[in-house]
Design goal:
three-stranded mixed β-sheet, 9% strand, AGR/TXD, dystroglycan binding
Length: 165
């Protein structure tokens, strides 16, 4: 009886530890941040919802195209999430959308469907193809070292609302 009780307790301890290890291994549910672009940012689910919110709130829509298994996207995401100025502007001044698929709006891929790609749409629902990064062969891409350019692009999107709309 004593050895049966000891064996039962051992099995309970092992299965409990195994259950805890399995539980820890489970990934947290994906938020609309889709891999930590910024969990404090309110993200819209779809391009259509983003357009609606941009018009309603009179804020520009920032669309980030990326892929989960893209090393360039991962590097940009990390730099984006760690930059306080970007996070603050994204939280307060933009309607934010990040997509891992293309939309039917061909205006969001004026020079091709590559990732990472960041486009801005103003509240009049005009895609701002004039807000570009620093690369002539991929106009709307930003790399981690381009964070100052991205900040300037965000500020330009905000200025255009005040001057043009």
């Amino acid at each position: 009886l004593h050895s049966t009780l000891a064996l039962s307790l051992l099995l309970i301890a092992v299965s409990s530890n195994l259950a805890m290890a399995i539980k820890k291994e489970k990934r947290a549910p994906q938020t609309l941040s889709r891999g930590r672009w910024g969990d404090e940012i309110t993200w819209v689910q779809t391009y259509e919802e983003g357009l609606y919110q941009a018009k309603k709130s009179n804020k520009p829509l920032m669309v980030i195209h990326h892929l989960e298994d893209c090393q360039y996207c991962q590097a940009l995401k990390k730099a984006f999430a760690e930059n306080e100025e970007i996070q603050e502007m994204a939280q307060n001044n933009f309607v934010m959308l990040n997509l891992m698929h293309e939309t039917t709006d061909k205006n969001l891929s004026p020079d091709g469907q590559y990732v990472p790609r960041i486009m801005f749409v103003d509240p009049s629902l005009t895609v701002r193809a004039d807000i570009t990064g620093r690369y002539s062969n991929r106009l709307y891409t930003y790399e981690p070292q381009d964070i100052p350019f991205l900040i300037e692009s965000m500020k330009k999107a905000l200025r255009l609302i005040q001057t043009e709309l």
